[in-house]
Structure formats: structure tokens, C-alpha cells
Backbone:
């Protein structure tokens, strides 16, 4: 029984160097005098970065594999960790994306039975990004694209990004929609605790996905698959409520111009992973709302410990067949047969 981890992150030294040299945001800042290190997403929002986290992100070899073995994880699908490439200058991002994908390909080739990859792209050059996705899938063997919930001034529903979505559907590969710090100034009032993982991360993913649904993207690309972490970022809890504007609008002219209820797209185009949400009622809600067939394994390593995820799944009252679905069988629905 294979266990395939859909959310596991890495850095490269070139990525860190680019973030360190960036004049705007996001920017990586290391203060050797005060022995502090942060990624600044905005003037008000900085993420502390300790040595263990940084070392784990830069460990693409035996240390990572030992942790996988200890936790019972057979395969990790690696993705470039936040803040990502999307908000960098498009020219810089396009070069960095290709270099990062090449570096990830070399990492995977060293451990082909243990590691797989999501592409990193610079979407503000859509045609080049679509071509890079195709190169990553066809030439490098990657399984899809990991992108972040907003691009600073835009979301994935904007028309300019359609070429990437079209290519992803044509290639039959999923998009992992990963959180990032909220774009909204009101969410930055209390810094990283509000704008980051406890609230802002999930808020941005939900906003991006609902914009994608309302824009008709899943009607235009009906075979497009999107993966959300953290048991759907709270969306299963809202699965009935999001249909309200479609089923009972105050004014028929306000009904979203889509062919199905929003919840129907969740059940046909969306998968979720277990990453970083180890609350049993949340799992039960997700399972009842979407079905066990839409849940994949994700650990969010190294931001979360793999052991915590695996122990949580083992504690749940699931049959062996249900666990197998989460661990590897459901992955076959999106073309992953390892």
C-alpha cells in the first residue's frame, strides 16, 4: 500500500537568493546582527523563519527520506513553498520558474521512486507559463502545477490566465491551489497571525476558488481539476450556503452565469488533502460533503510534521479500503498510478 503525499514543500538556494534581492515584496530578509530571519509579504506581515524550517526546506535528500520512512510516507510530490514566484517581476519569475523546475527535476531523478513534482510557473506571462507547464509535464515528468491563491493584483479567474488553464486541462494535470498571505489590507492589521495560516491563508483560497466557479472556468474547462489543502479550507462546511445565490437570488439578474450549482463543481472538479487540519469533526464534514473519494493525503511538510498527519489518519474510524483511497487509490483518478 503506497502513501502519496500531495503537499510537501522545498526551497532552492537560487530561490532564496532571488527573494533576498527583491526590492519589493515578497522579500527574504536575514538580520545576522539580531539573528532573525523573515519573509516579508508586506510591510505589516513578516513570517519568522527558524533554522530547522529552512534546513528542512533545503533538504532534498537523505534527511527528508529518513523522515518519510519514519512516518510511513512512500512518495512526496514536491512543490515550491510560499511565497512562490507569482508576485515577482514577470521577467524574473519566468527565468526563476524554469531554473526551479530544472532543479526539481534533478532532485527527482536522484530519487525517482520516492519523489515527484509540481511545476512552478510565472503566470503573468501566460503563454510562456503554459509552455513551461507543458515542458514540465512532457519532458520532466511533473504531475501538475502548484500555484498560490492570488498574484498580488489578480486572481486566477482573470481572462489573461486562461491559456494556462486550457493547457492544464489539455495535459490532463491538476492544479494545486496553495494558500498565501491575504492580499487585503484589513487582514494585515494583526500581521502574520491573521493574514497567514490561522485565517488569511484559507480565506484567500476560498475567494480564489469561488471566483473561478462564478467566472465559468469549470464550464469552459469541464475536465480541469483543482486540489485544495487543509480539508478544503473550510469550504465543505459552506457547501450548501454557496448555492444560495444560484438557487434563490434576490434578483434573477444576480444569479451567477454558470450551468450548475457551485456545490456541483466541488463534487466534480475539486479534490482536497488532509494537510494541516487534524480536527476530526472537520474531517467528518469534508467526508460527508464531498465523499471519501475526493480526499487525498497531504502532510504540509515541513510546515507541519508528517507524523501528526499520519497519526491523525490512523486514529480515525476508517476501514482499510477508505484509508487506501486517501493514501493512493484516489490519486489514480487524476492520473497518478505510482
Residues:
Amino acid at each position: 500500500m503506497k502513501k502519496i503525499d500531495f503537499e510537501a514543500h522545498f526551497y532552492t538556494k537560487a530561490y532564496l537568493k532571488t527573494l533576498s534581492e527583491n526590492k519589493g515584496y515578497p522579500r527574504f530578509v536575514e538580520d545576522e546582527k539580531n539573528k532573525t530571519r523573515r519573509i516579508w509579504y508586506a510591510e505589516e506581515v513578516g513570517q519568522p523563519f527558524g533554522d530547522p524550517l529552512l534546513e528542512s526546506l533545503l533538504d532534498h535528500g537523505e534527511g527528508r527520506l529518513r523522515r518519510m520512512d519514519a512516518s510511513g510516507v512512500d512518495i512526496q510530490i514536491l512543490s515550491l513553498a510560499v511565497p512562490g514566484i507569482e508576485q515577482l517581476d514577470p521577467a524574473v519569475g519566468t527565468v526563476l520558474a524554469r531554473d526551479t523546475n530544472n532543479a526539481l527535476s534533478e532532485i527527482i531523478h536522484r530519487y525517482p521512486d520516492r519523489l515527484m513534482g509540481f511545476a512552478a510557473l510565472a503566470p503573468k506571462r501566460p503563454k510562456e507559463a503554459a509552455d513551461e507547464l507543458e515542458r514540465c509535464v512532457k519532458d520532466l515528468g511533473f504531475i501538475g502545477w502548484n500555484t498560490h491563491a492570488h498574484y498580488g493584483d489578480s486572481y486566477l479567474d482573470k481572462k489573461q490566465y486562461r491559456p494556462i488553464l486550457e493547457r492544464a486541462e489539455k495535459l490532463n494535470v491538476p492544479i494545486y491551489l496553495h494558500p498565501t498571505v491575504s492580499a487585503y489590507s484589513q487582514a494585515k492589521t494583526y500581521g502574520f497571525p491573521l493574514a497567514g495560516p490561522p485565517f488569511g491563508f484559507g480565506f484567500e483560497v476560498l475567494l480564489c476558488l469561488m471566483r473561478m466557479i462564478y467566472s465559468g472556468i469549470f464550464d469552459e474547462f469541464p475536465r480541469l481539476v483543482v486540489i485544495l489543502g487543509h480539508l478544503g479550507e473550510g469550504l465543505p462546511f459552506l457547501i450548501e450556503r454557496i448555492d444560495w445565490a444560484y438557487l434563490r437570488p434576490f434578483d434573477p439578474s444576480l444569479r451567477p452565469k454558470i450551468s450548475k450549482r457551485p456545490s456541483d463543481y466541488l463534487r466534480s472538479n475539486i479534490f482536497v488533502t488532509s494537510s494541516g487540519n487534524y480536527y476530526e469533526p472537520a474531517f467528518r464534514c469534508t467526508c460527508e460533503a464531498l465523499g471519501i473519494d475526493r480526499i487525498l493525503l497531504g502532510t504540509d511538510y515541513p510546515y507541519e510534521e508528517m507524523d501528526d498527519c499520519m497519526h491523525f489518519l490512523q486514529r480515525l474510524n476508517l476501514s482499510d479500503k477508505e484509508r487506501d483511497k486517501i493514501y493512493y487509490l484516489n490519486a489514480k483518478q487524476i492520473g497518478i498510478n505510482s
Remarks:
- DSSP finds 14 helices and eleven strands in the chain.
